[in-house]
Amino acid sequence: MIPLTPVIVGPTGVGKTDVAVALAAWFPVTVISADARQIYRGLDIGTAKPDQDLQARVPHEGLDLVAPGERYSAGRFARDAAGWLVRARAAGRWPVILGGTGLYVRALVEGLFREPPFDPERRDRVRTWTERLAAPDLARWAGRLDARFPGGGRQRAARAIEVALLTGRSLSWWQHAARDTGAVRPWYIHLTLPRDALHRRLAARVDAMVRAGFVREVERLLAAGVAPDAPGLDGVGYREVVAMLQGRLPDVALRDAIVVATRRYAKRQETWFRNQLRTRDAVHGEREIWTLDATENPNVLAATILERWTDLTARRAPRTAHSS
Q: Whole-prediction pTM value?
């Protein structure tokens, strides 16, 4: 049977990493980061990526995987993460998945769809066309071709268009009808905060990023040859800094623009986690989704999680021949 694995989900800024670090004080933890922005090398400040000292204390997987100009899909994440899970367990560590990107979590938990082969020439033509489209046009096309398109950045919209045009069926159809078994049996821990509290945390985080040199980070990336519309720079915060550096956003408006964009992103994440986490599957039956108020101290939350985990694993352990 696939081992039960904690999957801590919630919006950006809710404190997922702090809870994982607190858990690591109790036993060896390897964090599997399910974050579509922290995969990019050089995108550190704007993604709130754990620093090297923290990574030395608590090993992380899923960080610094590709260059900012490269594409990285949820399917690729699921394949990579399956290997990280095996490696963590073989080392005697407890894998804990931290999920900010819902599609990454879904791909790992629910499995990958079996993608049909694409004609390379047709695929190149579709990609050439989508690369010329503005972001709003990409999103409109994706919504027309896939009624269940959940939204997102350029990469997700282009992917939905590509699959629909090259296969004649929407991406959501393939994800539902042609899916393999997932690599994780999840125990979902959904961290939440009252809206006002989350907004205060997000504003403080943006202020800290700006003070830490967020603008300089983007300037270095652009100076190194990363295109302004590269996949890695299509995320919240990075779009706004690029717009400011290109003169499309006044300097004085940058901070507030990032705060507003981050709040909207957190709202989309929270909506996704409330509505898209599945409470059961055909193989393992009911799944537990446990909601915790993240206003508590991370150490208190970690102790609460550990207590619940001990109870869960004890209840699910197989009975021996001597059990009464």
A: 0.79
